[in-house]
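Q: Joint fold for the lines below.
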Amino acid sequence: MAYSDGLNEQLNQLATEVCQHPPGSLKRQRLLNQLIYQMQQSGKIWLGGDIISQYYEDALQQTWFWFCRSINKYDVSQANVITWFNAHLKFRLLDIRQQIAIDNKTRTNKSENEELNFIDPVDNLPAPDKPQPILEETLEWIETQGSELRRLHVRSSPHINCQVLFQNKLPPNEKTWRELAEKFGKRESTLNHFYNHKCLPCLLAFGRAQGYIDT
Amino acid sequence: MNLSTQQLTISVPITEANRIKASNFAQEQSDSEKAKQVYHNTLAVLVTNNYLQMLDVSTSLQHSYSWNAVARVSTDIADLNLPLIGHLECRPILDSEDTCYFPKDTWNNRIGYVVVQFDKSYKQGTLLGFVPQVSSTKLDIKQLQSLDDLFIVLHSDETVVQLSNWLENIIDEGWSNVESIIGKKAINPVFVFADIPDEDIKSHKIEDAVGRLYAAQDEIEKVDLDSEKALIHLLKNTLNEEIRWKAAELLWEINPENSAGGIRKAVDLGMHFGENLIALMVAILPKPDGSMAILTRVYPGYGENYLPQGLQLSGLDAIGKSFFTVSSRNKDNYIQFKFTAELGDKFNIRVALNDANITESFVL
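A: Joint structure:
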């Protein structure tokens, strides 16, 4: 199809242009953005065949990483860039399936529901009815460190301090900035600026000190 | 989705591992509404993280506020740290939405905002566009700028030194430990204890210096007998900037590894000034009110005792307006200027001698 040939040519040309600029350069990033966008819009990226695998997204993501990393190896005389991409994607999916099969042999039977039923992850998030330990600890810290936290306050308003703002901004008693602006007779922007610059850094430091950083 | 077909958008697959991570973070929350928010925020950060890695932009989830569990339970933030650049906010929106929400928690200390839209099954996130700043909590996605503009912003900040990263021990290229650039002797001729061989005499001299420092102020009472502890107590509690820095400098002498003395690094500016060896030191010291005390000092380079006369050290604000200038006289060991800045503040330090000058840019 003439349209398709033109599109392929255009994509191949873009891929070749990307390689002419060093990784991390603005020029390369803009061309790569254009290339990825046009490939995605072309509708020609392989969608995984008849059976939609639950591992398709993993294979696709790995392929995008590989594609962006390896594009300098792309040879326009060998294949269209979409074909090159799709070939890798199919192999990645095969690899992942094989790996899963190996893993499953060593594991006991998995619930069938997990495989067959689509579960909306957001609807199934647990709704605990009592505060979680992290929040509990944070609320406790706000109380026990009161004297330190009260030292940081809005200029000439000692009653509007980090402790009070934390008590009003953290669950379960969080209020809107508008409510707080009314309550304290200050502009929303004043309170918010103070909170972001003075209070949030204290919270972050507490989180770091408690080792609550994920890796 | 109401975007015109011309708008550059990039779709990023959301892997099983991404969804599990988001669920784990969501489960730390106290109610289902908050859990949903954290789930969306986490996926938006992970999608952006994958996208930026594809485009060769370094990212650090560990240094993102959103990877701090205390920040997650207490704020509505979805930032991604880009080392040496800053924090990029990644706001999530759902398949059915055409306005994006920017909570006020995210209005400060961001290099910009990207918007990530999820499909119904959370298997794909699409980066819709970018805005460098926000001034309202809602934005129609039609008002977003092109994703390309994000990269222009990222490249414009290439040479800015990110001081807040120093506290996390991420040090910008070219900056090193002060001793390696200036040499031990030149650092502070006032207190050089390292060369005193007798430990008893040395500790007496240190005690004397600490005692004199306490005596020079009447705000804080000396309670600790141990010199190091007494100094830390003073520098953490004093409201006097001169005293705070003197205490820090003494602490650098006694125990340079103690983090209570803040962080100081130096850069060799020699190549900009011909024969003259010149080094710029910047030290940062967190203050009790959450802001940061900053000390900028120009030293003669390795092995030299004096600065060339007429050397100027100036500070320029974000728009290039000068806020201080100091000049070296005959036989100055160093020249310096101290000021206070807040998280997100930008400033430039210029060192000039005759026709030559060099400007270093910083963001806190």
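Q: Anything notable?
A: The CA atoms of residues 75 and 210 of chain A lie 52 Å apart. Residues 133-209 of chain A form one domain.
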